[in-house]
Amino acid sequence: MVKVRELLFKVFPKFNNSTFEVLKDRFKALGFTDERALDSVNNVIDTYEGWDKLPNIANFIQFDKKVRLYEYDELLKETNDFSAEAREKHFDKFVFIKSLKKFVKKDYEKYFRSE
Questions:
Q1: Nearest residue to 23 via CA among 35, 11, 40, 10
Q2: Quick one: which of 46, 48, 50, 106 has the most CB atoms within 10 Å?
Q3: Average pLDDT in the 96-107 region?
Q4: CA-to-CA distance for 113 and 115, rounded, in angstroms?
């Protein structure tokens, strides 16, 4: 959390200590790791448009998204009552992530590709 604090105060020097303490508590309560918290701060730096005012806690918290991972068996169970054509369309919405040995919806594939 030291890197998070240093970066936050470097970019937003008027950010106050009490707000940072509340932000830190919210990160902890929501299960953010130091890495996720740093990613959140970097996201606010990259996307924040309120140049005449400081970001608030919601600007940092809203960045975090959890992505549902699926086992192959789960995808099969979801499609038990589907026709062959409907099942194929359903499976086309997912992609296999080799490093995790799990499936994710294609919309989230970009978060798992490093190349």
A1: 40
A2: 48
A3: 90
A4: 6
Encode 12-51: b = buried (16+ Cβ within 10 Å), e = exposed. Answer: beeeeeeebeebeeebeeeebeeeebbebbeebeeeeeee
Give the start-end residues of each E strand in 50-111. Answer: 94-97, 102-105
How much is the pLDDT for 67? 84
* 115 has pLDDT over 60: no
Q: Name the average pLDDT for the chain.
A: 89
Task: Report pLDDT digits (tens) over 43-89.
Answer: 999 989 887 789 999 999 987 667 889 999 999 998 988 999 999 99
| Direct distance between the N- and C-terminal alpha carbons of the chain, in angstroms, rounded to an integer | 28
Beta partners for 103?
70, 96
> Is the C-alpha dihedral spanning 61, 1, 42, 100 positive or negative?
negative
3-class secondary structure, 76? helix
Residue 96 CA to residue 58 CA, distance in Å, equals 32
